[in-house]
Fold:
Amino acid sequence: MNFSTLIATKASRVVYAAKGRAIAEFGLRRAQGDGHLEATRATYIGGCASTSNVMAGKKLGIPVSGTMAHSFVTSFDHEIDSYRAYADAFPNRCFLLIDTYNSIEGAKKAVIVGKELEKKGERLLGVRLDSGDLALLSKEVRIILDGAGLDYVKIVASGDLNEWKIEELMKKGARIDMFGVGTELITGRPTPALDGIYKLSDVMERGRHVPKMKLSEETVKATLPGKKRVWRFSGDGMFKKDIISLEDEHIDNANPLLELVVKNGKIACKRPSLDKIRQMAADNFSNLPDKYKTLDDAPVYPVEFSPGLVALREKIVERIRKEEIQA
Structure:
């Protein structure tokens, strides 16, 4: 849960920064071993449109996308020969990598291959920039493509991208239609781990629930006692705040969030499809006020404790302190 939440959150930040441009997850080679499949699933939930991970495509049904590699281009004596070979192999899925030697010259050769595809009744789908000044190059390449009547050809950008770099490219007016994001996304950089915890809060003793909690000199290490529920307040279609309460408390004018998933070690609910999970994540993200979505210095979303939970915590803390003194 920690890892998936981390990567899905990272993906949502990248997607948000792209302002509607599609994000393709390109991180398979940089993923932590077998974790690549779980990571790719999380990026899709977070809003990525596709992945270069063909195993994820086969097992999870995630749309697969990708382009040629620099090694493919350099294996040919002439760059345009690599383009033609790739276009022959993928006539209706052709994206050409144009920065192996010179991005502008590569774009001009892509125009030639694009025109050849048109004569065959096909279309060049896109070109990819993987290095250099992506904002400037994308504008120059757009002019070349449009001038040749290939205004339908998409420009894809990649190269150690993250949400901050994409945001900056958008501010510069980059003519980029799609971003390929790999290492920074699939590893959750610069935050390699999410510190979610699993602590005991309630036990059944002689047929009744007994709340438990952990104390600590560090406030963040202390836990909350008892069986709990989470409630969300909304207004004007946007989330306002959450409240954590005891299970038997009811919070007026709020929606309960928790649903029973596992009971006695068995799945207790119908598993939603991956696409339904993805849509739910997108809906929730759209209902989060923009001030919480800023990439830097965003305020903390408010989460409060109910009066009953606060009272129970204080009661248990007092009891534990007395027991310590008596011991």
Summary: The chain has a mean pLDDT of 95. The chain has two domains: 2-186, 202-326.
